[in-house]
Amino acid sequence: MVLDIIFLMLISSTSHVSANSTTVLPAAAAACSNGECQLRDECSTDRDCAAGLYCLSCPLEFRGSRCVRSTISDPFKLLNNSLPFNKYAFLTTHNSFAIRGEPSHTGVPRFTPANQEDTVTQQLNHGVRALMLDTYEFKDGIWLCHSFKGKCHDFTAFEPAMDTLKEIKAFMSANPSEILTLILEDHVEAPYELSRLFRSSGLDKYWFPVSKMPRDGQDWPLVKDMVANNQRLIVFTSDRSKQETERIAYQWNFMVETQCECFLFSCCFHLWIGL
Ligand SMILES: *[C@@H]1O[C@H](CO)[C@@H](O)[C@H](O)[C@H]1NC(C)=O
Ligand SMILES: *[C@@H]1O[C@H](CO)[C@@H](O)[C@H](O)[C@H]1NC(C)=O
Fold first, then answer.
1. Which ligand is nearest to the CA of 23?
2. CA of 19 to the centre of ligand 1 (A)
3. All domains of the chain, ordered by start, with CATH?
4. Does the keyword Signal apply (predicted)?
């Protein structure tokens, strides 16, 4: 997660960046396990670390894996939930599905970069509120995948999109005041396949309709109303035509992107909702 996070900012001069970052400090190694590892101790699984800590590898900061602390601030509690949605900022993961250690689901070893250490469920539990997912037609369905020459292959595929949508659904039903945003790099060409996927995942019941999305720089609805209406899932596609045909919002009708600065595979940029 640390390698590849961005903040989803919402257009407003008073946006509040409220997701707190993981605290990572280098320290000497210590042999420990079973919940005895303290902050910065080396670890191999979350269970090694004491309460409130988890085991993270972050090659840009340190070698191996260490217990780190993550402090999560819920923007709707930090302020209140009576402002328009575009007044809050959210932690977003880029290539949220490209998770280190995800087993191969194709029987072929994967040969493509991983971007995240946390599973999607862990990302959401750690405060991430927007996920960037790359959707491809692959095998007999829709998969989350990196591409090679524009196509998903056995050696670049991460997992069937349905598996991730089920994790998202579980989080949304367990957390009825949370609003999630999905930003799809959408390579699904077959008409209505993506809509069908969301319907069969059961996530369509949380769908925030494109007809309620503001145009011409107006504010979004209030967070408390989105929660009360249970319209808590915002989905954007990179495929312009699908807003007209499938009522999935075309991202560049509602977002702008600031200049991207890249370091190795890690790009730091901001997306703004509210165009
Ligand atoms: C972020 O975490 C630090 C250290 O735990 C804490 O002092 C600070 O209040 C937190 N900030 C927010 C906005 O929650
Ligand atoms: C919510 O927070 C905003 C910003 O601090 C404030 O202006 C507004 O009065 C608050 N609304 C409620 C209902 O507390």
1. 1
2. 9
3. 5-23+73-274 (3.20.20)
4. yes
Q: Is 50 in the pocket of ligand 2 (CB under 6 A)?
A: no
Rg (alpha carbons) of the chain, rounded to whole number = 19
Q: Per-residue pLDDT tens for 233-251?
A: 999 999 999 999 999 999 9
Is the CB of 82 inside a 6 Å radius of any atom of ligand 2? yes
Residue 26 has pLDDT above 50, yes or no: no
Ligand 2 atom at minimum distance from 79 CA? 2
The answer on pLDDT for 275 being more than 70 is no
User: What is the DSSP annotation of 111-151?
Assistant: -S---BSS-HHHHHHTTEEEEEEEEEEETTEEEEE--BTTB
- Measured by CA distance, the residue closest to atom 14 of ligand 1 is 73
pLDDT class of 75 with cuts at 50, 70, 90:
confident
Ligand 2 centre to CA of 235 (Å) is 27
What six digits make up the tokens of 249? 């919002």
Ligand approaching nearest to the C-alpha of 80: 2
Which pLDDT band, with edges at 50, 70 and 90, does 273 fall under?
low
